[in-house]
């Protein structure tokens, strides 16, 4: 006779719990999902307290995919469990910092993000500008404005352009967001009774700042006709250099959306022109930077003559030409992504059309990498609940598509608004969510391998109660990605600027104090820093020369090293004495550290 004590029969409630746990665990193992199940027993009419409290869940969902929180109500219990939904092979990514800037509570859109030469990140929205510290994200300064557009020169100088009191205001910013110079101009080269309406874009090269202006010209019938002009200002003084109307013969209206200044003495501007009774055409102008002469212009047409240039949809080509990105009408009437390659003289060298199998394919941003490829990101799909963020790479020489990738969170939609390109990654910023139009979107950032298109990293932020979205991104050569957008308030018409800073997977490894990059820390390194400060010698890794890790290279750095070498000072901050990444990020570049040969730093 078996005398072993029998296990007491579990109450039905606990049996049900065990069954639920078993079902979910088996299901999640089968689908490679991670699961946590928490129980909180509820009793009515003065019953005993719950034995187990469910832990508080973070508002931010940073996983390989999205984290869904499901609640099943019963009369006497509540289940709360979190399932990690996979999104390709991407690694969950944590930001270095996340900040919200409520200085302009009516912000509804962020138009730009840039790393300034003064060591700050500058964010532009329809409520003005905010400068933030790179290491912490705290507000360094604010500058109210009316939807200013940002332009950054080759040396990191920041310029802004906006409409103020019916005139075009262009300014150069100094350290701390102060005004180095500001010019307010009403002359746009169009009739005196015309009215400036909005800024279509701004760009800067080493000599000039170029501003694309949308203008309303009074018509004979009492209405107004949209027109377009480009203005140029001297970068050092703000002196107006030239003003040129950009008009297409026969077109009844014009609208500008993009301008770039590659630095070769020419400026490219793009927009839309409407020929009455015919079509909307995407039009590209090539302008001489010195005197404003229009060298050539071209129009891009879809199958029914309807194309729309993407705001910011221009990228320079290495031969003096450019790539233009437009949302184009396909042969069946649905939207496709159109990439046009124009030579330095305006000749069309190739055209690439891309349509995702998920449906209409609306592009959002374009960029060219040093590997010669052109990258595009956007949103594809028909239903609002089934949209997907897509990214493609095509050969810059012939337009052939090298790879295409698509991503969406489990059970939701996603889309792209901006992109930035690093040494090995394509960063795409946008949104993810499934609650409806705008109100439950969550900001999202993904990175794809430049060579293969494989998803490397993913970040999906907070969505409730009103959500938000990223609409601007910028990459710095120190391995930093800034993504910015709007954190909505009670509705989509009120919000604040939100920004996050991420570290690239492929950061350069170095040894702090190894200023001459020979793999040893010695007196020669102090001499190398002094030669950089007073002799103009170039250093391959300024991060290594920042001995005291204050984000600057100055005389205090070789002094700190000498004190350490002669045993009177403390050792330098990490990474020291072995190779590693910069733990306290700044904008000091590290192009190469030959003593540290590992590719990327964890």
Overview of the structural elements:
The protein is mainly beta. The protein has three domains: 16-84, no CATH class; 91-503, YVTN repeat-like/Quinoprotein amine dehydrogenase (Methylamine Dehydrogenase, Chain H, 7 Propeller), CATH 2.130.10; 507-602, Dockerin domain (Type 1 dockerin domain, Orthogonal Bundle). Helices cover 8% and strands 46% of the residues. The strands form nine sheets. It has a five-stranded mixed beta sheet, with no helix packed on it. Strands 5-36-35-34 form a four-stranded antiparallel beta sheet, with no helix packed on it. Helix 2 runs antiparallel to helix 4 (556-565). The protein is globular. The termini are far apart. The model is unreliable at 1-87 (pLDDT under 50).
What is the CA–CA distance across the termini?
62 Å
By CATH, the architecture of the largest domain is named 7 Propeller
How many beta-strand elements? 36
CATH superfamily of the largest domain: YVTN repeat-like/Quinoprotein amine dehydrogenase
Instruction: Tell me about the largest β-sheet.
Output: 5 strands, mixed
Strand arrangement within the widest β-sheet reads 4-33-32-31-30
What is the level 1 CATH name of the largest domain? Answer: Mainly Beta
Instruction: Determine the number of helices (DSSP H or I, runs of at least 4 residues).
Output: 4
Query: Share of helix among residues?
Result: under 10%
Uncertain segments are 1-87
Give the domain tally: 3
Radius of gyration: 28 Å
Structural class: mainly beta
CATH third-level topology of the largest domain: Methylamine Dehydrogenase, Chain H
């Amino acid at each position: 006779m078996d005398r072993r004590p029998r296990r007491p029969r579990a109450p039905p409630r606990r049996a049900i719990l065990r069954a639920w746990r078993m079902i979910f665990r088996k299901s999640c193992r089968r689908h490679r999902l991670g699961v946590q199940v928490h129980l909180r027993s509820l009793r009515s009419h003065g019953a005993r307290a719950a034995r187990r409290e469910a832990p508080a869940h973070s508002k931010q969902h940073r996983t390989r995919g999205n984290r869904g929180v499901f609640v099943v109500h019963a009369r006497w219990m509540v289940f709360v469990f979190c399932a990690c939904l996979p999104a390709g092979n991407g690694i969950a990514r944590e930001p270095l910092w996340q900040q919200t800037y409520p200085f302009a509570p009516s912000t509804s859109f962020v138009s730009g993000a840039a790393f300034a030469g003064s060591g700050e990140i500058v964010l532009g929205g329809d409520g003005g500008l905010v400068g933030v510290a790179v290491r912490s994200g705290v507000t360094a300064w604010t500058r109210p404005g009316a939807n200013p557009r940002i332009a950054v020169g080759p040396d990191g100088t920041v310029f802004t352009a906006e409409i103020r009191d019916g005139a075009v205001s262009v300014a150069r910013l100094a350290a701390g967001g102060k005004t180095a110079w500001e010019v307010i101009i009403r002359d746009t080269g169009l009739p005196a009774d015309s009215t400036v309406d909005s800024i279509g874009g701004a760009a800067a090269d080493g000599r000039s700042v170029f501003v694309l202006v949308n203008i309303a010209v009074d018509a004979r019938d009492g209405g107004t006709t949209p027109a377009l002009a480009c203005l140029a200002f001297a970068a050092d003084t703000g002196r107006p250099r030239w003003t040129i109307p950009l008009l297409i013969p026969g077109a009844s209206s014009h609208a500008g959306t993009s301008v770039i200044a590659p630095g070769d003495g020419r400026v490219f501007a793009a927009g839309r022109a409407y020929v009455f009774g015919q079509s909307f055409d995407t039009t590209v102008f090539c302008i001489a930077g010195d005197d404003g002469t229009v060298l050539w212009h071209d129009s891009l047409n879809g199958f029914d003559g309807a194309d729309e240039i993407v705001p910011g949809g221009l990228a320079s080509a290495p031969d003096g030409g450019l790539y233009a990105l437009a949302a184009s009408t396909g042969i069946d009437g649905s939207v496709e992504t159109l990439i046009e390659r124009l030579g330095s003289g305006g000749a069309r060298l190739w055209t690439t059309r891309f349509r995702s199998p998920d449906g209409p394919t609306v592009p959002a941003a374009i960029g060219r990498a040093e590997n010669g490829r052109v990258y595009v990101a956007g949103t594809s799909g028909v239903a609002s609940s089934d949209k997907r963020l897509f990214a493609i790479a095509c050969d810059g020489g012939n337009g052939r598509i090298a790879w295409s990738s698509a991503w969406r969170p489990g059970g939701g939609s996603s889309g792209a608004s901006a992109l930035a390109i690093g040494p090995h990654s394509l960063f795409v910023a946008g949104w993810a969510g499934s609650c409806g139009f705008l109100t439950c979107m969550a900001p999202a950032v993904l990175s794809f391998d430049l060579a293969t298109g494989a998803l490397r990293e993913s970040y999906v932020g907070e969505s409730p109660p009103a959500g938000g979205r990223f609409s601007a991104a910028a990459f710095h050569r120190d391995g930093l990605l800034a993504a910015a957008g709007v954190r909505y308030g009670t509705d989509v018409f009120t919000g604040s600027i939100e920004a996050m800073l991420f570290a690239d997977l492929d950061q350069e490894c170095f040894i702090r104090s190894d200023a001459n990059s020979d793999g040893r820390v010695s007196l020669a390194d102090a001499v190398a820093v002094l030669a950089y400060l007073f002799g103009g010698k170039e250093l391959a890794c300024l991060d290594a020369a920042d001995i005291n890790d204050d984000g600057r290279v100055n005389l205090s750095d070789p002094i700190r090293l000498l004190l350490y070498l002669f045993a009177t000072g403390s050792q330098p901050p990490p990474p020291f004495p072995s190779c590693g990444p910069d733990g306290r990020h700044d904008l000091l570049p590290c192009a190469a550290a030959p003593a540290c040969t590992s590719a990327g730093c964890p």
